[in-house]
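Progress report, Aim 2. The chain analyzed during this reporting quarter is listed below.
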Amino acid sequence: MTEKINDGRTVRLILASASPRRTELLRLVGIPHTVCPSHADEEHDTPSEPAAHVTVLAERKAVAVAAGRPGALVLGADTIVYHGGVILGKPKDFEGACRMVASLAGTEHLVYTGIALAGPEGAPPTSACEVTRVRFRSLTNLEIERYVATGEPMDKAGAYGIQGYGATLVESVQGCYFNVMGLPLTRLIRLLEERGVEYPFGPPLWRG
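Predicted structure tokens for the chain:
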């Protein structure tokens, strides 16, 4: 898939993420792309402040993939749940997922997603961060265990997916819904525009 540029060159848009939700959202709004998951280090030298944390990791992922594909415009993204002063990533096991969901039950939390675009031809990354406030309903221990037993929480920050069974846990969302899925679409369009890429409501993307 390509992004057509006015002088006749083409630049590939690559999603540096294996997340099926991010691919689904890009397809939803007609943004052509290929997928190349980043293997950038996500464990070391990351800020503890949530907005900086996701932004740094998104940039790190985008740059890592762009380094090996100089002709591509690379999109990196990172999502966390922030609750009680703690960053919640993906759970490591069943018990960990149950603890995460239990901590969110009956309370509000924040979902942060950082996005970054790097390249083409070594262009440095530009990035942005979106924040959404989510409130969970109260849950019994049995409900929590049944939800976690579906397997849905295991590859998701905060141990839930708002686009699946987890939708029944959510009482309200303040802000960008798609941000909770892992890719704030309006913020992405703005970031593309900052790099001179126009979104024409369908493929291809054009560079002005």
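Residues 1-10 have pLDDT under 50 and may be disordered. The CA atoms of residues 42 and 117 lie 17 Å apart. These observations will guide the mutagenesis work planned for the next reporting period.
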